[in-house]
TrEMBL record:
This is Enoyl-CoA hydratase/carnithine racemase. It holds the Pfam family ECH_1. It comes from Glycomyces lechevalierae. It comes from the Bacteria. Signal peptide: none annotated. Belongs to the enoyl-CoA hydratase/isomerase family. One of its GO terms (molecular function) is catalytic activity. InterPro entries: ClpP/crotonase-like_dom_sf, Enoyl-CoA_hydra/iso.
Length: 248
C-alpha cells in the first residue's frame, strides 16, 4: 500500500491532516488536533486546499471528514465578536471565500468525492455536496440563520433545496429545526448512517470500490454526478451569499 501524504500537506497542516493511500486522499479538518473551530483562517483555507487537491493528478478519490465527534467544534470568538466596523471590512473576503467553499469542491475537484460527517457543525454542505455522503448516528443537520436574525444563504440552504425539495427546505430554513441522522437517511440527505468507529473504514471501503473502475470511468462518472450541483451553484450560490452578507 502506497501511503504518502501529498507534498503540499505541510502547507495546510494548521487546518487539515492528509493521508493518501493508493490514490485515495483523506482530508481531515482539525484545530490543534481536535475538532475544527470555524474561523476566518479555516474559512479561507478550505477553498485553497480544495483547489490544490483538485490540481494534483495523484489524487483519484477524495474523502472529506472532521476530527472527533463534531464536523466543526464551534465558532472562533474572534469571528463571533467582531465589531460592526470589522464586519464591514471583512464582508468582501467573506463573500469571496464563502463562494469558494462549495465552488472549489464542485468545480475544481474532478475525482469522485465522499463526505464522511463525523458529527454536527458548520458548513456541512461541503460533505453533503460530495458524490456520496456518510454520517454518524449523532450527526444532526440544520440551518439556524433565520432564527437568529440572519438570511440563510451561505450554502447549507442551497443543499437543503437541492436534496430535500423546496417545501421541506423552506420549512427547515424558517423554523431552524434539525434533521436527525435517521431522518437524513430517509429523506435522501445521506447515503448511509454508520457508527462512529466504522465511519472512516466504511469511507475507505467505498473509495476502494470506486478505485476498482478504470480511471476515465471514475472521473467521467463524477462529472455526470456533479453536473446538477454545477448548475445549482451557477444559478444560486452567489445570489444566496449576497443576501446573507447584506443582513450580517
Amino acid at each position: 500500500m502506497n501511503s504518502q501524504p501529498p507534498n503540499y500537506a505541510a502547507r495546510y497542516a494548521e487546518h487539515f491532516a492528509m493521508e493518501r493511500r493508493d490514490g485515495v486522499l483523506l482530508l481531515r479538518m482539525h484545530t490543534g488536533g481536535g475538532p475544527a473551530v470555524m474561523s476566518l483562517a479555516l474559512h479561507r483555507a478550505w477553498g485553497d486546499v480544495l483547489r490544490e487537491v483538485g490540481a494534483d493528478p495523484d489524487n483519484e478519490v477524495l474523502v472529506l471528514t472532521g476530527t472527533g465527534d463534531a464536523w466543526t467544534g464551534g465558532l472562533d470568538p474572534a469571528l463571533r465578536d467582531r465589531s460592526p466596523a470589522q464586519r464591514s471590512e471583512d464582508r468582501y473576503d467573506l463573500y469571496r471565500e464563502g463562494i469558494a467553499l462549495l465552488r472549489s469542491l464542485v468545480f475544481s475537484v474532478d475525482v469522485p468525492t465522499i463526505g464522511a460527517l463525523n458529527g454536527p457543525g458548520y458548513h456541512q454542505e461541503l460533505a453533503l455536496a460530495c458524490d456520496l455522503t456518510l454520517c454518524t448516528p449523532g450527526t444532526a443537520f440544520d440551518d439556524t440563520h433565520f432564527r437568529s436574525g440572519a438570511v440563510p444563504g451561505d450554502g447549507q440552504h442551497l443543499v437543503f433545496q437541492e436534496l430535500l425539495g423546496l417545501k421541506r427546505a423552506a420549512r427547515l430554513l424558517y423554523s431552524g429545526a434539525g434533521v436527525t441522522a435517521a431522518e437524513a437517511l430517509e429523506l435522501g440527505l445521506v447515503n448511509e448512517v454508520v457508527p462512529g468507529e466504522r465511519l472512516l473504514p466504511r469511507a475507505w471501503e467505498l473509495a476502494a470500490e470506486i478505485m476498482a473502475a478504470p480511471r476515465s470511468t471514475r472521473r467521467l462518472t463524477h462529472a455526470v454526478v456533479q453536473r446538477p450541483w454545477q448548475r445549482r451553484l451557477v444559478d444560486d450560490l452567489a445570489f444566496g451569499r449576497t443576501h446573507h452578507l447584506l443582513n450580517t
